[in-house]
Design goal:
It is found in: Cytoplasm. Could be a nuclease involved in processing of the 5'-end of pre-16S rRNA. It is an enzyme of class 3 (hydrolase). InterPro entries: RNaseH-like_sf, YqgF, YqgF/RNaseH-like_dom, YqgF/RNaseH-like_dom_sf. Keywords: Cytoplasm, Hydrolase, Nuclease, Ribosome biogenesis. The chain is an alpha/beta fold and about 170 residues long. The chain has a single domain (about 5-160), classed as YqgF/RNase H-like domain (Nucleotidyltransferase, domain 5), CATH 3.30.420.140. The chain has four helices and six strands, in the order βββαβαβααβ. It has helices spanning about 40-55, 75-90, 105-115, 125-145, and strands spanning about 5-10, 15-20, 30-35, 60-65, 95-100, 155. It has a six-stranded mixed beta sheet with strand order 3-2-1-4-5-6, with helices on both faces. Helix 1 crosses helix 2. The longest helix is centred in the C-terminal third of the chain and has 24 residues, at about 125-145. It is globular and about 45 Å long.
Length: about 170
């Protein structure tokens, strides 16, 4: 585990919630909700720029599994987003590692937290993805501290998997 900012990412069909940590990786804080743009990938451009600006060491992308731990359409979408993010970061020369972490129930938990905090239900959509990203990141940070090692599954791009063929 190295010192440095970590990023939490909650990927949805319409929005992407983003959170960041302090350089000592003690506390996750919300940053922004990006509008998902599958045609122009403007959300990915903004996210890559932000990660580079902070010189983040790790970006944790939430992997929404089913309650039984299975794969869903959302799981596939998160994996694909994480792979594209890793490729874009590599292309930009960033040393940031992208990792997938289990995020079952973070959005449900985020809605409950917002309700408990007195946030009007009509305002949830605006911030729920950020709150979910904070939950994903804080869980990863806490696990890192507890286990004294990096957590989550490393995202590899097709270039990473190539072997030397003599």
């Amino acid at each position: 585990m190295s010192r440095g900012v970590r990023i939490g990412v909650d990927v949805g069909l319409a929005r992407v919630g983003v959170a960041h940590s302090d350089p000592d990786a003690l506390l996750a804080s919300p940053w922004k909700t990006l509008k998902r743009d599958t045609k122009k990938d403007s959300d990915l451009r903004v996210l890559v720029n932000y990660i580079q600006e902070l010189q983040a060491v790790t970006a944790y992308v939430g992997l929404p599994r089913s309650m039984k731990g299975g794969e869903t359409a959302s799981t596939t979408m998160a994996r694909e987003y994480a792979t594209v993010l890793q490729r874009r970061l590599q292309d930009a020369g960033a040393a940031t590692e992208v990792r997938l972490v289990d995020e079952r129930l973070t959005t449900v938990s985020a809605h409950k937290d917002l309700h408990a905090a007195g946030v009007d239900i009509r305002d949830h959509r605006r911030v729920v993805d950020q709150v979910a990203a904070v939950a994903i990141l804080q869980q990863a940070i806490d696990m890192e501290k507890s286990l004294q090692r990096d957590v989550g599954a490393v995202v590899e791009t097709p270039n990473d998997r190539q072997t030397d063929q003599d």
